[in-house]
Design a protein that fits this description.
Blueprint lengths: L1 H7 L59 E2 L14 E7 H4 L8 H14 L3 E9 L9 H4 L4 E4 L5 E4 L4 H18 L5 E5 L2 E4 L15 H14 L4 E4 L11 E3 L19
Helix pairs in contact: 5-6
Length: about 270
C-alpha cells in the first residue's frame, strides 16, 4: 500500500472495491495486436543443398552411429557422412566344405575393402533369401530337407529341426567368434542365419521356422562366441533382452511405427 501510494503521489483515505459493471456495460475486452503468420513454403518451393564434400572426422566421436551404406546394392553417395556399411553373405559361400569356414577367401576381401573406405561393417549370414538361390551348402542339401514357398519371390526353407544343420550352425558360430571377436573392422554382427533373409521369421509360414529351443541355442552360442564385438537380433525374443544384444529394424521408417504387430518400434 505504501509503495502504491508513493507511486500515485496521493492516496485515498479508504479503498473501496470497484463497482461491478452492469449488464448494459460489459467489461471491454482488450484485443491484443497479432502479427500475420508467416507462410510456410511448400516442398516444391524448397531448395535442398548438400555439400560437395564433408569432413570425415565428423563421425570420429562415435563411428558406430549414424547412416550406413551397402556396396552390394549401389554405389553409395559419398557426400553423406557415414562410417558403417552393411553386407549380406550366403552361408554356402562361407561354408563350402564341412567344418571349414572359408574366412580368408570369402569374408576377408569384403572386410579389407570396407576398412579401406574407413568404414565398419555390419554383417549378416543367411541360409534362405526369398527370390534368390538357396544358400544351404551342397554338402548338406543331400541330407537336410527344405520346404518350398512362393511368397516374396519364392524359395525353399531348410529344415531347421535337422540335427546335422543345427550342429553345423553352432560349430560355425563358435569358429566365427574365435576368428573375429574384437576385430575392429566389424561394427556389428547380426545373428541372422535363421528364417527368410536371416531375419528370424518365415512369415506367413511360422510352422517351418526354427523350433524355439534351437532359437535359444543360437542366441546363447553367439553371446558366448562374441564378447567384444556388438551383436544385433531382429526381435527381442527369449532371453535376448537380458543379454548384451541389441536389436535392429530392417524396415526403419517404412514399417516402423503403427498398429501392425510386427512393426518394430524404435
Amino acid at each position: 500500500m505504501v509503495l502504491w501510494c508513493a507511486l500515485l503521489l496521493a492516496c485515498p483515505e479508504t479503498l473501496e472495491p470497484a463497482p461491478n459493471p452492469s449488464p448494459e456495460q460489459p467489461t471491454p475486452q482488450v484485443q491484443q495486436p497479432t502479427e500475420p503468420k508467416p507462410t510456410r513454403p511448400s516442398s516444391a518451393e524448397k531448395t535442398w543443398t548438400r555439400p560437395g564434400d564433408y569432413d570425415r572426422p565428423i563421425t570420429a566421436g562415435n563411428p558406430l552411429k549414424g547412416f550406413l551404406t551397402s556396396h552390394q546394392w549401389t554405389t553409395p553417395d559419398q557426400r553423406v557422412p557415414h562410417r558403417l556399411e552393411f553386407l549380406y553373405l550366403p552361408f554356402d559361400r562361407i561354408m563350402p566344405t564341412a567344418g571349414a569356414p572359408d574366412f580368408d577367401g570369402v569374408l576377408e576381401p569384403y572386410l579389407e575393402a570396407s576398412a579401406a573406405r574407413h568404414n565398419h561393417m555390419i554383417l549378416r549370414f543367411y541360409l534362405d533369401y526369398p527370390g534368390r538361390a538357396a544358400a544351404l551348402p551342397g554338402w548338406l542339401s543331400d541330407t537336410v530337407s527344405c520346404t518350398p514357398y512362393e511368397e516374396y519371390g519364392g524359395g525353399c526353407s531348410p529344415n531347421y529341426d535337422d540335427p546335422r544343420l543345427q550342429a553345423t550352425l553352432l560349430e560355425f558360430i563358435e569358429a566365427f567368434g574365435d576368428r573375429y571377436d574384437g576385430d575392429q573392422r566389424l561394427g556389428f554382427i547380426q545373428l541372422g542365419l535363421l528364417g527368410f533373409w536371416g531375419e528370424w521369421h518365415t512369415y506367413p509360414h511360422g510352422e517351418i521356422f526354427a523350433p524355439p529351443a534351437f532359437q535359444r541355442e543360437v542366441i546363447a552360442a553367439f553371446d558366448a562366441a562374441f564378447d567384444a564385438t556388438h551383436l544385433m537380433l531382429r526381435y527381442p525374443i527369449h532371453d535376448s533382452p537380458e543379454r548384451a544384444i541389441g536389436f535392429h529394424a530392417d524396415s526403419f521408417a517404412y514399417s516402423t511405427l503403427g498398429d501392425v504387430p510386427w512393426f518394430f518400434h524404435t
